UniProtKB/TrEMBL annotation:
Residue stretches spanning the membrane: none
Name of protein: DUF938 domain-containing protein
Pfam hit, one: DUF938
Amino acid sequence: MTKPYSQACENNKQPILEKLTPYLNKPLEVLEVGSGTGQHAVHFAAALPHLTWQTADREVNHAGIQAWLDDAELENALPPLALDLYHGWPVNQRYDVIYTANTLHIVSSTLVERLIAGAGRHLKESGYLIVYGPFNYQGEFTSESNREFDAYLKSQDKESGIRDQEWVLALAAEQGLTLQQDYAMPANNRLLVFKR
C-alpha cells in the first residue's frame, strides 16, 4: 500500500526528538497512543535503538503504520496494538513512558479523560507521560493560527478542540502525575512532560 504521510509529522519529528532524548536515554518500553501514520514511531525508534517502541492506534490506521514499520525494518518498533479510547485499553502491562502526539485536540474531552486515566493505570512508578500538541493557557489561545485551527476542529467535530493546559494538568494530578516540563515547540505547539 501507499504509506500515509503527514507533513506536520515530518516537520515536528526532529524538534520533538531533541526534547524527548534526555528522558529516553536508557533501555525503556514506550507505548505510543495514537501512532497515526507511523512516522514518529520509525523516526524515534531509529534514532533511539535502545528503546522498545510499541505503536498503538485504532485498527483503521494499522495498515498505514505497518507500512512504515515494514519499510524501516526496525527490530525495536513493534506492530500496532488496537487501542480505541472508546473501548478501553488492550494492554495489561505497564510502560516506562507513554507518548501521545496531536491527540488531545482531536478526540472528545471524555476521551482525553480516558487517555489520561489510562496513562495513570499503565505507567510504571517514576514513568513519564509525554504529550505533544497545541494548548490554551488560562482559556486563551496562544496564537491567531491556533484560534483558527480550533474553529476548524469544532466545525469537523464539536467535541474536539484545543484543550486548556490547566485542565490537562488537573487530570494528570488525579493520576499522580506531576508536570516536569512544558516546552515551547515550533508552530505554536507544546510538549508537556509529566512524571509519576
